[in-house]
């Protein structure tokens, strides 16, 4: 934090309005979100994402913020704010892209296999390689905190 409550990393974020929707079934990912980064994610199956959307996302890899709605499973009908990573996770040097959504809600049960629709509303920042895992963890934490503050401000208006 800097003086005035602004996060030091806030200046590198773009918060560009966007209107994209991705849907897919929740699958097992690399297992890094919760274990290594302290940020559990719902990984979406890329097999069934349409080619036009893949092409659009392929040119816009980065971190997004929006809202995730369960279309099936035990949480069917629930909608939660979400921060997503769409890309190859350059810090981990993945060779294939992934879509990993952190839903801003505490879940007591897993929801593998559920279908999730995520409405992307903002491009937060572009995909980039971080110098360390600690730097990446800080950036993820900041992304979530900033989006939470944005939602709180919106709710107060």
TrEMBL record:
- Involved pathway(s): Cofactor biosynthesis; FMN biosynthesis; FMN from riboflavin (ATP route): step 1/1
Q: Does the keyword Repressor apply?
A: no
- List, in alphabetical order, the Gene Ontology terms for molecular function in this entry: ATP binding; riboflavin kinase activity
What keywords does the record list, in alphabetical order? Answer: ATP-binding, Flavoprotein, FMN, Kinase, Nucleotide-binding, Transferase
Q: What class of enzyme is it?
A: transferase
User: What InterPro entries does its record include?
Assistant: Riboflavin_kinase (IPR023468), Riboflavin_kinase_bac/euk (IPR015865), Riboflavin_kinase_dom_sf (IPR023465)
- Outline the extent of the Riboflavin kinase domain: 20-152
> Looking at the record's lineage, which domain of life comes first?
Eukaryota
Looking up Pfam families in the UniProt record yields: Flavokinase
Q: Which GO terms describe its biological process?
A: FMN biosynthetic process; riboflavin biosynthetic process
What does the record give as EC number? 2.7.1.26
Classification via SMART domains: Flavokinase (SM00904)
Q: What is this protein called?
A: riboflavin kinase
Q: Highest lineage ranks of the organism?
A: Eukaryota, Metamonada, Carpediemonas-like organisms, Carpediemonas
């Amino acid at each position: 934090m800097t003086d005035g409550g602004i996060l030091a990393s806030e200046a590198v974020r773009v918060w560009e309005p966007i209107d994209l929707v991705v849907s897919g079934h929740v699958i097992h990912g690399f297992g890094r979100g919760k274990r290594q980064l302290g940020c559990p994610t719902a990984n979406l199956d890329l097999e069934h994402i349409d080619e036009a959307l893949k092409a659009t996302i392929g040119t816009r890899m980065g971190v997004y913020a929006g809202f995730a709605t369960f279309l099936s499973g035990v949480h069917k009908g629930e909608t939660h704010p979400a921060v997503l990573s769409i890309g190859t996770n350059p810090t981990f040097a993945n060779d294939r892209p992934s879509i990993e959504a952190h839903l801003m809600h505490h879940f007591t049960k897993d929801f593998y296999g559920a279908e999730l629709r995520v409405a992307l509303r903002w491009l937060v920042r572009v995909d980039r390689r971080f110098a360390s895992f600690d730097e990446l963890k800080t950036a993820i934490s900041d992304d979530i905190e900033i989006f939470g503050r944005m939602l709180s401000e919106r709710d107060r208006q």
